[in-house]
Write a structure and sequence with these properties.
Blueprint: E1 17-21, H1 26-37, E2 41-46, H2 49-63, E3 67-71, H3 77-89, E4 96-99, H4 114-142, E5 146-151, H5 155-158, H6 164-183, E6 189-196, H7 202-208, H8 230-241, E7 252-255, H9 259-263, H10 268-271, H11 276-298
Parallel strand pairs: 1-2, 1-4, 2-3, 4-5, 5-6, 6-7
Helix pairs in contact: 1-2, 1-8, 3-4, 4-6
């Protein structure tokens, strides 16, 4: 990310302590860089300690400050509890949580197994809630304020064909955002969400447009004729997580160049015409990526 394009003064986030789930890679890493550059201490979690350590080292070398990587699979509530214990022991309460970790792949829904559904729902739907609950309980007990931000998609308003477990799970987290913004507002805990359009990342491209096919990958369908730039996402995330806009609560804000308004922002137009052979090919590519990732995790 080009940090010179951050909109804020240095030191804006001094004293903030933020957990970014899935912070080692992709959008999570970019937001982590933005928070760090502006003075926050950032805890990042993911499934690979090596990757987290590498990201933390690179970001601290570039900007100074403190990034701590803690391996944690958010599908496991006990692992979350242990991670949050570690964070609290390292300097006290968090001031913010970015629910960014996610999993997704394109598939015809009739090709999914229960395991395939759960692979996504366990991360996005259940895991996001487990993190929010564990951190939220501690903040309420200690009377501390904080900001929670969830990374969603515009499908929370429209649904989307061919990514049904993700659309269902993220819609549920949109509901969590609205529900807890009211229920926990009285504790000084606020809940907002961002619905990004296309911000290309490695994990996303491999599973949502394998081999360059797939939805949302066509910039010419976007009114602005381009994908999002990472500093644009980071600027919005800082606005919602940093000090100064605490009255913003319960909102889900799209950042997609009006892509969803113009073309629906879903996978339907691009994927609905595909036949068996094309789906077989894409499934093989996605499963290849998953297997490669699993092998990499197993060696660490
Ligand atoms: C059908 C599939 C499949 C596919 C996996 N499965 N890929 N089924 N079509 N293409 C099935 C498997 O067969 C298996 O079911 C089950 O899913 C679990 O598969 P595993 O490979 O064992 O899962 P696991 O290693 O736990 O990986 C989780 C994952 C993977 C979600 C499947 O994609 C992952 O680790 N993702 C993290 C990174 C990521 O997805 N980034 C993109 C996020 S983009 P069976 O029945 O065979 O046991 C995003 C929003 C994008 O979230 C918004 C864009 C606008």
């Amino acid at each position: 990310m080009d940090v010179s394009k951050l909109m804020y003064r240095d030191g804006l986030m001094d004293g903030e302590r933020i957990l970014v789930t899935g912070g080692g890679t992709g959008l999570g890493r970019e937001m982590t860089e933005g928070f760090l550059k502006l003075g926050a201490t950032v805890y990042i979690c993911g499934r690979r300690q090596n990757k987290l350590d590498e990201t933390a080292a690179e970001l601290m070398a570039a900007h100074g400050g403190k990034v701590v990587g803690i391996a944690c699979d958010i599908r496991d509530p006990d692992a979350i509890h242990a991670m949050v214990d570690t964070i609290w022991a390292d300097g006290g309460a968090l001031t913010g949580v970015v629910n960014n970790a996610a999993g997704n792949f394109i598939s015809r829904t009739e090709d999914l197994s229960v395991n395939g559904f759960n692979a996504i729902a366990d991360i996005v739907f259940r895991g996001t809630f487990y993190v929010t609950l564990d951190v939220g309980k501690r903040l309420i007990a200690e009377g501390k304020k904080a900001s929670f931000l969830s990374i969603l998609t515009t499908w929370v308003w429209t649904g989307s064909a061919f990514v049904v477990p993700s659309a269902m799970s993220k819609t549920a987290i949109n509901s969590m955002t609205q529900s807890l913004s009211t229920e926990w507002g009285r504790y000084g805990l606020r809940f907002n969400a961002i619905a990004p359009g296309l911000f290309p990342t490695k994990g996303m491209s491999a599973r949502l447009s394998p081999g360059g096919q797939g939805g949302n990958s066509k910039n010419d369908l976007n009114p602005m004729g381009r994908a999002g730039e990472m500093h644009e996402l980071a600027n919005l995330a800082v606005f919602l997580m940093g000090p100064g806009a605490e009255y913003v609560n319960g909102q889900t804000i799209a950042i997609d160049g009006a892509g969803a308004l113009a073309n629906g922002g879903t996978f339907y137009p691009v994927l609905q015409g595909l036949g068996d052979a094309e789906w077989d090919q894409m499934r093989a590519m996605i499963k290849g990526t998953n297997a490669k990732d699993q092998a990499q995790r197993a060696t660490e």
